[in-house]
């Protein structure tokens, strides 16, 4: 295409970004980095080691994460390598781990306990709180078949959430197992894949639709308020009652829930096996000291049951928040995991026991920002520049502060004093430093404590009084500047 054929670029063409790829400013970036540091610190304390894999994997290595082999870009972002093999940006952090374990083979000692944090990409329709690029923080154990390994993941996940500031009653990790639900499905005669999927979808709506709505979806079907009709799973009244008894078996303690489940699941082999799994997990959770309120057995959890081979767990934020629209709502799911013994087998043909837990860092950071839990970040000390021709004094002062370990910058614009002070306010600066001709002659600097000045200014009624008082502003010898600034910065922290 020649230059003549190239359409001219306009401001509208340039100033846009792909949907689902969020821009992040410092407060959110800092919050996200802090979450990663804290959570991976917990993982390391529990004996896990770091592993970092590349952003791209061969598309066929994604396995169940690749929705359609004939359309490599469906669900993932894929490109062709120079040898015409399809590569895709990683969909999550688990598929690369499975590939790594398969490649390492017998040279990798097992159990292999790893953690990882980084961005993942999904070619899905974006929406509120749903992005195409986001961060996850995972821990996985490969080569541990016992359900105490699942319990460890759950207890460690709860500890990680407490480490980032979650209190009792503000979060919960819900635990279920695929085999337990399979036992219930077998018991009600749901042998067809379509019927089983309809039951799973109905149970997944229990929180939103309530018992009556789910009962309709388990039976003949349900018409919503808009008049749309959803065909049901077609279960009879007795079968609907049994499935609902299973879904509502949760109680105040894990022991009581297990008792209720023993009654609800019946005598199927899958049901007995699933119940034994949860009993083993509950026993290990007790040994690990996981509080009853942090971890509950909840048979209504049906996340990813087509992917997981045993226990599944989902972490949920319970605290209600008020959005900008004034409405109160819950953040909901911020992580989860489960046992996936079949994932490595697609490379090796051999079943390798594996279990993992993942925390959605981007979602958790956004939730904490909405809840006002992210740390207020102080900006740099701003050194005002009154000499546009020669800013050497401002540059020297900023350098002196940085060498003393204080975040600082010299003003680089061409505006006067008032706009420079407004700039310092916008930067959330703890203080501004002014050096004019008078200060240079006396060997002093004028410091304005911006936070203290703002507090004192609220009590001043007139402009004249403000100019006379100059709240939060004082003069010190240049030799005492660093210590004076350090006191301001530490006081504001």
TrEMBL record:
Say yes or no: keyword Aminoacyl-tRNA synthetase present: yes
Q: Which GO terms describe its molecular function?
A: ATP binding; histidine-tRNA ligase activity
**Domain Aminoacyl-transfer RNA synthetases class-II family profile, chain residue ranges per copy:** 35-391
Record key words, sorted: Aminoacyl-tRNA synthetase, ATP-binding, Cytoplasm, Ligase, Nucleotide-binding, Protein biosynthesis
Aminoacyl-tRNA synthetase in keyword set: yes
What NCBIfam families is this protein classified in? hisS (TIGR00442)
User: Which HAMAP family does the UniProt record give?
Assistant: His_tRNA_synth
Name of the featured protein: Histidine--tRNA ligase
- Give the organism the record lists: Hyphomonas atlantica
């Amino acid at each position: 295409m020649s230059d003549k054929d190239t359409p001219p670029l306009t401001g509208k063409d340039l100033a846009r970004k792909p949907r689902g790829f969020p821009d992040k400013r410092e407060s959110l970036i800092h919050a996200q980095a802090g979450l990663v540091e804290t959570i991976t610190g917990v993982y390391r304390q529990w004996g896990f080691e770091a592993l970092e894999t590349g952003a791209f994997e061969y598309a066929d290595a994604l396995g169940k994460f690749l929705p359609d082999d004939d359309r490599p870009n469906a669900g993932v972002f894929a490109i062709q390598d120079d040898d015409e093999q399809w590569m895709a940006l990683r969909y999550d952090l688990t598929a690369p781990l499975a590939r790594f374990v398969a490649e390492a083979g017998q040279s990798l000692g097992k159990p292999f306990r790893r953690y990882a944090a980084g961005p993942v990409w999904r070619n899905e329709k974006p929406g509120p709180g749903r992005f195409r690029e986001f961060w996850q923080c995972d821990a996985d154990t490969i080569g541990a078949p016992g359900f105490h390994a699942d319990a460890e993941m759950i207890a460690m996940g709860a500890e990680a959430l407490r480490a980032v500031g979650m209190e009792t009653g503000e979060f919960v990790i819900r635990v279920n197992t695929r085999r337990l639900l399979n036992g219930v499905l077998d018991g009600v005669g749901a042998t067809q894949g379509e019927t089983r999927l309809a039951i799973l979808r109905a149970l997944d709506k229990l929180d939103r639709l309530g018992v009556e709505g789910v009962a309709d979806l388990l039976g003949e079907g349900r018409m919503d308020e808009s008049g749309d009709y959803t065909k049901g799973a077609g279960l009879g009244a007795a079968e609907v009652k049994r499935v609902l008894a299973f879904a509502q078996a949760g109680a105040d303690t894990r022991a009581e829930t297990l008792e209720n489940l023993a009654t609800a699941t019946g005598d199927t082999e899958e049901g007995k096996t699933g119940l034994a799994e949860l009993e083993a997990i509950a026993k290990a959770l007790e040994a690990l000291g996981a509080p009853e309120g942090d971890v509950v057995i909840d048979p209504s959890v049906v996340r990813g049951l087509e992917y997981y081979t045993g226990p599944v767990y989902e972490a949920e934020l319970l605290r209600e928040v008020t959005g900008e629209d004034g409405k109160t709502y819950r953040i909901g799911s911020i992580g989860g995991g489960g046992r996936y013994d079949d994932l490595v087998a697609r490379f090796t043909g051999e079943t390798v026991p594996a279990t993992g837990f993942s925390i959605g860092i981007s979602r958790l950071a956004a939730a904490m920002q909405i809840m006002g839990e992210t740390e207020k970040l102080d900006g740099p000390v701003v050194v005002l520049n009154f000499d546009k021709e020669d800013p050497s004094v401002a540059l020297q002062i900023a350098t002196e502060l940085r060498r003393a370990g204080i975040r600082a910058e010299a003003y680089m614009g061409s505006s006067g004093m008032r706009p420079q002070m407004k700039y310092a306010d916008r930067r959330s600066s703890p203080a501004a430093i002014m050096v004019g001709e008078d200060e240079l002659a006396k060997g002093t600097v004028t410091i304005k404590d911006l936070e203290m000045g703002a507090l004192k200014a609220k009590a001043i009624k007139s402009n004249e009084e403000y100019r006379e008082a100059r709240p939060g502003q004082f003069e010190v010898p240049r030799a005492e500047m660093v210590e004076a600034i350090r006191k301001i910065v530490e006081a504001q922290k």
